[in-house]
Amino acid sequence: MTLFFVADMHFGSPYRSYAKPRGFATTGAMNAAIAEAWRSRVTEEDTVWILGDVGDLDSLAPLPGTKHLIFGNDDTPRAAFRDSGLFASHAMSHVLETGWGSILLIHIPKAAKRSDLPVLHGHTHAAPDEPDARFVSVSVDKTGWGPISLEEVVERFKARAAGC
């Protein structure tokens, strides 16, 4: 089993809001690229932490892996996500214990109240990373359109800490 992280898919969202700025010809093309990247990386035995802004649940449902949701600002109404049966867990934030150490999972980086943990987040899309090197974004805009593994996340944290 591999642990993966992703955020900001915005499946099915209005073309001008997400697909066009991301360089896709249509919302369908964006959805397909994200689903293809997901399927090429994740198996049914894997776990995926989604750090907010899923979009259309019907697009997420057939994708492999056990899914956990950290709510994003666009994941509304929350009851629809909680009641969908798609997620093994859902929360506003979560401290994940890994072999590398504890990581705070959250959607909006500015909402991170703890200063003692590395912060894995979404929300920022293609914007530059937070100035604080403890923050790493897993927005699909920064991950090749799909989830990335814990190992890649750790490498990104290390690179940020080293000033790369």
Describe the model.
Helices cover 25% and strands 22% of the residues. The mean pLDDT is 95. 38% of the residues are buried. By secondary structure, the chain is of the alpha/beta class. The chain has one domain (3-161): 4-Layer Sandwich (Purple Acid Phosphatase, chain A, domain 2), CATH 3.60.21.10. The chain contains five helices and nine strands; from the N terminus they run βααβαβαββββββα. The radius of gyration is 15 Å and the shape is globular. It has helices spanning 15-19, 27-41, 57-60, 78-82, 150-161; strands spanning 3-6, 47-50, 66-70, 87-91, 93-97, 102-106, 119-121, 135-137, 148-149. A five-stranded mixed sheet has the order 4-3-2-1-9. The protein has a four-stranded mixed sheet with strand order 5-6-7-8, covered by helices on one side. Strand 5 (93-97) and strand 6 form a beta hairpin.
CATH topology: Purple Acid Phosphatase, chain A, domain 2
Low-confidence stretches: none
The CA-CA distance between the termini, in Å, is 30 Å
Question: Under the CATH scheme, which architecture would be assigned?
Answer: 4-Layer Sandwich
Rounded radius of gyration (Å)? 15 Å
Largest sheet: 5 strands, mixed
> Strand sequence of the main sheet, in spatial order?
4-3-2-1-9
Using the coordinates above, name the CATH class: Alpha Beta
Q: How large a portion of the residues is in β-strands, by DSSP E? A: 15-25%
